[in-house]
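Readers of this paper often ask what the protein records in our data store actually look like. Nothing more is needed to write down the fold, since each code stands for a local backbone conformation. Below, we set out a record of this kind in full and without editing:
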Amino acid sequence: MSYAQTSYVITGKVTDSETGEGMPFVAVAFKGTTIGTTTDFNGNYKLVTHTLQDSLTATAISYTEKSKLVNRKATTQAIDFQLVPASISLNEIKIYAGENPAYAILRKIVRNKEKNDKRSLEYFEYESYNKIEVDVDNISEKLKKRKAIKKIQQVIDSVEVLAGEDGKPILPLFISESFSNVYYRKSPEKKREHILKTRVTGVGIQDGTLISQMAGSSFQEYNFYRNWLNILNKDFVSPIADGWKLYYEYFLVDSAEVNGHYSYRIDFEPKRPQDLAFTGTMWVDKATFALVQVDATMNKTANLNFIEKIKLQQELAPTEAGPWLPVKTRVLIDIAEITNQSAGMLAKFYTSNERVVVNQPHSTKFYDVGIEMEPTAQIKDEAFWDEHRHEPLTESEKNVYAMIDSIKNIPLIRSYIEIANIVVNGYKKAGPIDIGPYILAYSYNTVEGSYARLGFKTNIDFSDKWVLKGYGGYGFGDHRFKYGAEIQRIFSKKHWTTLSVRHSYDLERVGLLSQDVWDNTLFLVSSRFGTFRRPFMLRNNQIAFQTDFVRGFTQKIKLRQWQFDPLYNFTYYTNPTDTQLATDNNFQSTEITFESRFAQNEQFLINDNTRISLGTTKPVFTISYTLGLKGILGGGFNYHKIALNLSQSINVGSLGRASYSISAGYIPSTVPYPILQSHQGNQTFFYISNAYNLMNFFEFVSDRYASVQLQHNFEGLLFNRIPLIRKLKWRLVANANVLYGGLSDKNYNLVPLEYDDQGNASRPIGRLGDIPYIELGYGIENIFRCMRIDAIHRLTYLNNSGTNRFGVKISFQFKL
């Protein structure tokens, strides 16, 4: 007698109850047996067996285990799971005697990193599909009762239905999709992304071209073979970093076939919960010791603000040349609620890479573009996306587009969006013109009294090639009008080639020009208030041209004619060889400046008619030369000015992050001191990173100088190890400023002597002597998640008038 065994098939999907996302690598099995399987990258599973049990169980690290009843009469059935996140410490449940067996495997992983890392390929390229979704989550019942939220209650309720049995309601705000081709070259290291198609929709999104550039593959680059992964500008140590033993505990759990590769399963968790490290699981190919899959989570115990969780999942596949490339990557960032009455946010990123080609070179010039978007890239045709997506959208994702359209058309939401745009951008959009910036609309100081200002600039609705700017202001104390106007022509956005013409007439002060602090909003605004020392009216005319020869190599040339009209007692000798007779109290100057700036691999985004730098990890080198032209356009002096600067921000591993700026300059000419280098002091209560914080305004003037400015953020290196303090998530910072310089006697003696009431003579400018100016500081940042307090010691030139040997300064910043 013969009979066939009955086959039973159980299929289903495992999702996260908080995010609704499919969960990869989850174990699904009959409890107490070895009969089971694991989910794929999208959370789907299929179990084929000849034996059924009463219940099926899904288990994953950092989630509560869940079991469901099995219908023992059905040969095929579907069972879905929604797992609830939980806090589980791995080393509480696993103990090893002798050396941890995972260590031998880790050593082989590290030994083979270079061979398996995609960066060992000379060239590679692939097609990348990227999807980003941003949702509001954790919407409390109390928050739902607010008047504004009631306006979108209907939409929230419809989303709640989609949340699932254990899921929490989420409110979609943004979704984007993009297709791009990505190209990599090893030497010199360069990367190009060509965005072919994209579509973006979201609450508050008006244009989408800037977002489309950020929605591509370049911002979803996570390589575990690097020692450090940069996520949201924070450095997380990889579980396979060279110094892995210092940061992680490891547990060899199992062996299994994953995507056709017989692999070790190793679980890992941070040695210290506050470290920027992950808890998770990795599968390692037994033959090559390459990563096959990684599931890594950073929990809220880490020293990070506003973030509940960061989850990074990645699946890799070998190339025909050997090294492995990520083929699927999913990142989830869970942003915490600021207060009990507010809501949180979820940001979900998904990347799929296909059609990989290796070692097919292109010319060096081909890689100079960086990020490029096709002019016709924006496409909303659903049929196109259905045909070309690497994977179809889920039912929830299909509804997101319609939900977002419903939300952003609610009048109250549109009002909130407009207010938010004004706060973030500083301008109020009025058709083709933006009015602002509002932060400079009012100020009060000893020269102008109350000062009111109104400005504008044209936007891309006016032109994508021409930008007009202007402002006018009136001081009710000095009864003077100030004004400025600028015309800019953009010839090329690809190489950022522009020509601008500017004229302005405004109040300035020696040693603290507005153009020098324009990028520091807090310092700029505070500098317009209070006592003005050495104020002057500056009439400025200039024409400037700039272009990128190649990516990261920028050339600028500027012709400037300016007039210095002091509002204080200023005089200088007009003949340097005869400093006893003729003096003058104002002057004009005409100068031409050439500047070269090199920043390897610097990334840029184009936002309508402006270019935004995303920086680079490489050193940034800038050199400039200025030639004064006597007799040209009223210029009164011939002079030469040379300036150099080298700056960089460096990850120094467990010690945190350091940044430095090294500068030097030389002016081998005899000119009035407003043309020389006035080193930037700081007499405000605020800490300014690029100023000398215990140096008075205009304390030192130089015609030759060299300086080093250092900043170090230790992150949680010290405070993470101190009980109680570590709960505050404070971070230690340190800084040092050293300035060496001098002022020649010819320039110093160009300033006439002044006499006090006792008849003592002195010159009204200071200069550095044989010793350098030095100040050292230390402090704590992340107080109340936004405050930084620095204690600073001034070590030299302590006998100068009005000198503070010690100071405490405050600053505010929002950092993760």
